[in-house]
Design brief:
This protein is of the alpha/beta class and 373 residues long. The protein is built from eleven helices and 16 strands. The chain has a six-stranded mixed sheet, sandwiched between helices. The chain is elongated, with a radius of gyration of 23 Å.
Length: 373
């Protein structure tokens, strides 16, 4: 019965804090695959100890040592998805050590998303039947998941649902995420002496500047297009012969991403030449892909006598965007309750780990016993 899950989760509290500390003190910045591999090893040890079944460390790129962790069947019905990499450089722990003060857990990466990783393992531990559930932990989510996209696709080949243990938004589950697109615009002009004959040049810097002003006009409604980086020129007294402009685009729907993509790719500079690279990176996670799972989650929360669940729509993307775009029902934000993702005041709630683990376990039990919409 689902009602048993919350009392049983409370018995895991001390173990969960011990596991979270072990995972947090292994600093794992995304750009250091070897450090991330060490964090995977810690998670694998917890899997073996708690679930009495070893996890598999899968090499994704032997040249860079990029790896991921897989646990459970190769083609699970329900996939639990998370990552162990963080935005924090090694050495941050000396300044922001792991600590538990009342209900607040602090330390680099505890909110985004090492507490969520532990909660996923707690949920698995609470299950009486794990035969249809799998776990995937990656190490490059914070930098785009480019090396792990293949293994994510493999893991959801026959999945009916994906539960993403990214942090919540003040406790709310994430049922919509904007899609992300990135573009690099390379402008080619013609160099000339800025004092003797500037009229003979084609100023690539001006072309890039005009483009940044023109292209922001593609943003409509809640779609954003933000010029983020610009570089140009070689010397202070030369008309710039080249320039580069980087654009960040966020949109709630795939249709909006396609509209902006068409506009960027068909932009013509006033002078000089333009080459566009990049494009749609993570498609939008639209509400249609999370609606039914949120209803399941609410029924479980009611059965556990938890507070009514809330939904949130967020501008940032996650690997949940990828699974939803692949046509698999996806519910995000099942991880930590707290605040401060990527910020100095990052913290996670200790008591909420218990509730969220029980909630996740109840959702899994519902999805593995009933047809998934």
């Amino acid at each position: 019965m689902i009602q048993r899950l919350l009392p049983e989760a409370k018995w895991l509290h001390d173990d969960s804090l011990e596991a979270l500390q072990a995972l947090t003190v292994v600093e794992s910045p995304s750009h250091e695959p070897v450090a991330c591999r060490m964090a995977l090893d810690v998670a694998a040890q917890v899997c073996t100890s708690w679930l009495e079944s070893p996890a598999r460390i899968v090499e994704l790129d032997s040249e860079t040592a990029t790896a991921c962790l897989r646990w459970g069947p190769a083609e699970p019905r329900v996939l639990l998805l998370g990552h162990v990499d963080t935005v924090w450089p090694r050495g941050t722990l000396a300044r922001l050590p792991f600590a538990v003060n009342g209900d607040r857990i602090t330390g680099p990466g505890v909110f985004d998303m090492k507490a969520g990783v532990v909660q996923s393992l707690m949920a698995l531990r609470l299950l009486s039947d794990r035969s249809k559930v799998g776990l995937l932990l990656t190490t490059d989510e914070e930098i785009g998941s480019h090396r792990s996209r293949g293994v994510i696709a493999e893991a959801i080949a026959r999945a009916h649902a994906v539960l993403v243990f990214e942090p919540s938004v003040d406790g709310a589950l994430k049922t919509r995420r904007k899609g992300t697109s990135w573009y690099r615009l390379a402008f080619t002009g013609r160099a000339a002496h800025a004092g003797l004959d500037p009229e003979r040049g084609i100023n690539a810097l001006l072309s890039a500047a005009r483009a940044s002003l023109d292209l922001v006009g593609l943003a409509e409604g809640e779609t954003t297009l933000t010029p983020t980086l610009m570089s140009a020129g070689s010397t202070a007294n030369t008309v710039p012969a080249s320039a580069e402009l980087t654009l960040d685009v966020r949109a709630w729907t795939a249709a909006e991403q396609q509209r902006v993509d068409h506009g960027v790719r068909h932009y013509s500079p006033v002078q000089g030449e333009l080459e566009v690279s990049g494009g749609i990176d993570r498609p939008a996670l639209e509400s249609s892909m999370s609606r039914n799972l949120f209803e399941v989650a609410q029924r479980v929360a009611d059965a556990l006598e938890l507070a009514p669940l809330r939904q949130a729509a967020v501008g940032g993307a996650s690997d949940g965007n990828l699974t939803a775009a692949a046509g698999v029902a996806t519910l995000d934000g099942l991880g930590a309750v707290g605040d401060g993702a990527h910020a100095e005041h990052e913290w996670a709630s200790s008591s909420a780990m218990i509730e969220r683990a029980a909630l996740a376990a109840g959702i899994i039990e519902s999805l593995t016993k009933e047809p998934t919409a």
